[in-house]
Structure formats: structure tokens, C-alpha cells
Amino acid sequence: MTHFSHQQPPRLLVVRNDKLGDFMLAWPALACLKASEPTPHVSVLVPGYTAPMARLCPWVDEVIVDPGDGAGREARQDLLAQIRAADVDALLTLFSTPRIGWLGWRAGIPLRLAPATKWAQLFYNHRITQRRSRSAKPEYVYNMELAEALLDALALPKPTRPAPPYWPLSAQEQGAQRHRIAEELALDPERPWVFLHAGSGGSAVNLTAEAYARLAQDVTSRLDENSAPSWILTAGPGEEDNADALHRTLKGMALDAHRLPARDGLGDFALSLAAADLFIAGSTGPLHIAGCLNRATAGFYPARRSATPLRWQTCNDATRRLAFRPPAEAGETDMHAIDLEAAAEQIARRLASSPTSEPSTT
Fold first, then answer.
1. Which CA distances in Å does 177 have to 193, 251, 350, 362?
2. Rounded to an integer, what distance in angstroms lies between the CA atom of residue 178 and that of residue 162?
3. 165 occurs within a structural domain
4. In whole angstroms, what is the distance from residue 176 CA to residue 15 CA?
5. How far apart are CA 248 and CA 237, in angstroms?
6. Are residues 126 and 203 in the same domain?
7. Are residues 48 and 18 in contact, defined by beta-carbon separation less than 8 angstroms?
8. Cis peptide before 47 (omega within 30 of 0)
9. Looking at residue 144, which CATH number applies to its domain?
10. pTM of model > 0.85
11. Which pLDDT tens digit goes with each residue over 250-269?
12. 3-class SS of residue 292
């Protein structure tokens, strides 16, 4: 066990170097680390794709970009030099791979903690058994447990677990995003705005565009004029054509539909989600950004045990979270089996009872 004085806060390196949604679900763990005393210096190792989000994270002091598994020798040596120069006291790897375990060992980091899975754990001197494949808890809770285990190993006090929002924005920032979109799309800010992200990010199983169109039509039909939403369609890289086609479909159904204008990179796109009253998507990175912002969310999940609504739950308040999945007897990826009428009823009820969300401030 390592002890640190109040004059010398520990320097921590947290690794989550895979997909966007996984990284967003690490923010509660990062918030937990930053809430300890003395306040640690927290660096993160992330891929270039999620680095813009890491730079926006209020719980991160330094961002180190991982060149990835396919990097050449020079890039690997440069990464090792960066980590050595960071003078890290402890490494927390939220998703363990042999390359990262070997990197932490070669960098000479004294305390190295990771889940006790796969042979990569051989490179760590602190290991925590979690059995995540059983999907018994939300991913972000597993991550917070690892953060708390690291604080225990460092003999630092464990704070009360932070509560949402894990990405706290000021009311002024949220208002600025809403004002920006209202001007761009000539929207009424008094009406509810439902953001709909029909893309999958290349990983998550999602509803088809046709199913989302039926859902939007059904939700709107259940609401009166005052609570009927404006639908704002979003898209990730390479998903623009599909979002444009869905936009045309919704316009053809006489719905108030719009395309979110192009944004200046991932960070700018993420900030725009603060304007949403409700965000609808599959279990994708953008859904988890909205969850971190404590926006109301409606997520559509497959029936796979490793991808359950509990395991990949958004980290917003429970009162702001809806989740839908196929029945247990359906195929693992049979999203057609989801009861869209029941989903539309719950979403419409949510919009009718709380048409526009209040800002989520600290």
C-alpha cells in the first residue's frame, strides 16, 4: 500500500482506449478519483478519436493519445517516453489488454490496477475480480468500483460517489447551445426538442430507419400541439446520408423534422447535445454523451447478455432514463421484436409530463 502526503497529491493514469461510449461511461470513475483528498492529478490514455472528449472532461488534467495497436516502433517508443515523463504513481486500466499492461510495466509505474481478466492481468500488481460478462451491474458502476479500489490501494479516502451530471455544464452554456440551434434551424425553444440518432457507430445493433420513422410518427400522434416535439436528426461520420434520408421521410409524414447542422468536430457535436430535451438512439457513443450531460434518454438495446440495458445503462438520473429491448425469447439481435407502440407510449408520456428539460447544473 502506498501513502501520499497532502503536500504531494498522487499522479494517476487512467486508460480507456477503445470506443466513445466506453469512454463516456468512464467519466463517473474519473469524477470519483477527482473527488478524493488530496485531489489527484489525473491523466487519461485515449485514442485520437475520443481525445476531444477527454479534453472537455472536467475530471481530466492531461490527455495522452494512444497511437493504437497498429502503431510503428517509433510511435510506441514515443508513447512510452510520454508516460515515463508523466511521472505516474498509479495506473488504472478500465479495459485491460496485454499491450497496455506491458506498457505500464515497462514505464515503471509502481501501482498498476486492472480487472482480473485474461492473461493481461499478469502485468498488474493489483487485480480486482468483477465478472463483467455476467452484466450484473452498469458498466459505469464497475468503473467506479475500480476507481474506489485504486483509492483504497493508495490509502486515499473514498469520497461519496458523485451524482449526475458527470459532465456538468453551466446553465449559460446549455442556454447558448439551445439558442444556437434555435437560430440555425428557426426552432421554437418553448417546444420540446427530441434528438434522434439513427446511426450505430459501427458497433451497436440499432433500429432500422423505417422503425425510427414509425416511432417518431407514433410519438407525435400521441401528443397535443403544445407538447408535440421538433425532431432533430443527428449523425456520426459516414452516417450523414442515412440521416438525410430519414429526415426526408419524417418531413413526408408532416412531422416537424430537422437535421442538426454540421459541427466542428466531435467536441462541438457533443456540446450541442446539451440542447436536447430527449435523446433517442441505440446503445451508441452519442447516447452516452447525452447521459453524461444528464439529458433525458431513450435507448434501444439488443437482447444479447453482454449488451443489456442494465450493463450499458446511461449514467443520467434514473428519472431521466428509458430503455427498450426485445423480449427474452427473441434472437440476440432481433430489434424488430421490440414493441415500438409501447416505446412510443412511454416516450410520449415522458414528453407530456416534462416537455422541456431544465438545465442540469451542479
1. 12, 24, 22, 18
2. 26
3. no
4. 32
5. 19
6. no
7. no
8. no
9. 3.40.50.2000
10. yes
11. 999 999 999 999 999 999 99
12. helix
Cell of 306: 453482454
Which 3 state secondary structure label does DSSP give 13?
strand
How many angstroms separate the CA atoms of 98 and 174, rounded? 41
Residue with cell 420513422: 213
Cell numbers found for residue 118: 485474461
Q: Are 205 and 349 within one domain?
A: yes
My answer on whether 116 and 32 are in the same domain is: yes
Which of 153, 188, 220 finishes a domain? 153
Please identify which residue in the block is written with the cell numbers 489525473. 42
State which H helix or E strand residue 59 sits in: none
Q: Do the beta carbons of residue 101 and residue 95 sit within 8 Å?
A: no
For residue 144, which of 125, 124, 164 has the smallest C-alpha distance?
Answer: 164
Closest to 347 in 3D by CA, of 300, 313, 310, 304: 300
Residues of the domain holding 178: 171-353
pLDDT in tens, 104-120: 999 999 999 999 877 67
Strands 193-197 and 278-282 turn out to be parallel
Cell of 272: 450541442
Query: Does the residue 1 lie in any domain?
Result: no
